[in-house]
Amino acid sequence: MFNKIFILTLIIFSCSEAKDATFSSERFIGIEVGYSTLNNINEVGMVESKDIEYGFKIGAQNRDWRTTVDLNFFKNKDKTYQQARLSFDYFFWSSLYKSDDIVFKPYIGANVGWINYTDEDRYIKSNGLLYGGQAGLAWNVLDEVDFDLSYKYSRTNVENIDSLSAFVLGLNYLY
User: Fold this and answer.
1) Domain-by-domain residue ranges, the chain?
2) In angstroms, rounded to a whole number, what is the distance separating the alpha carbons of residues 52 and 50?
3) What is the pLDDT of residues 109-142, one digit of tens each?
4) Distances from the Cα of 21 to the Cαs of 26, 101, 105, 138, in angstroms?
5) Topology of domain 2-174, CATH
6) Residue 103 forms beta bridges with which residues?
7) CA distances from residue 164 to 77, 158, 172 in whole angstroms, order as listed
8) CB within 8 A of 109, min separation 6: which ones?
């Protein structure tokens, strides 16, 4: 119960901080879809489940940093998970020249969140802390739209899950 309250407080605090003047010019809402691998542990050993992951995100960014809250969903036969993550990304380079029609911004980042995992075949239902990192490339194609291609890797303290990884493509609307 304490973990859920902590994560919810962290998400609310981050969203309220997104209204800060530093970020006010580039808030965004977006969708994402990716190919995800869930490495779970059973009696036999490590088993991989691969399928499509999809989600929604909201955040804020400035020239150097981006903060995102996202909700992602995964279902592969009897295994499902829902995750809520708070991510912090650092744009380590940006092609912000006046002549550029498209702005490229590669980034690295870290995330922390909560995962709810269900394996109907083995009658397992558990949840726990999720933490990890990501790297990717964001590119602005219009003033109001940017794409985001990333690789995300996460570990968890859920007993039956070793790790999660995903290649994700996102579409963000900047407002």
Assistant:
1) 2-174
2) 7
3) 999 999 998 888 778 888 999 999 999 999 888 8
4) 10, 26, 21, 22
5) Porin (2.40.160)
6) 140
7) 17, 11, 23
8) 66, 87, 88, 89, 90, 133, 134, 135
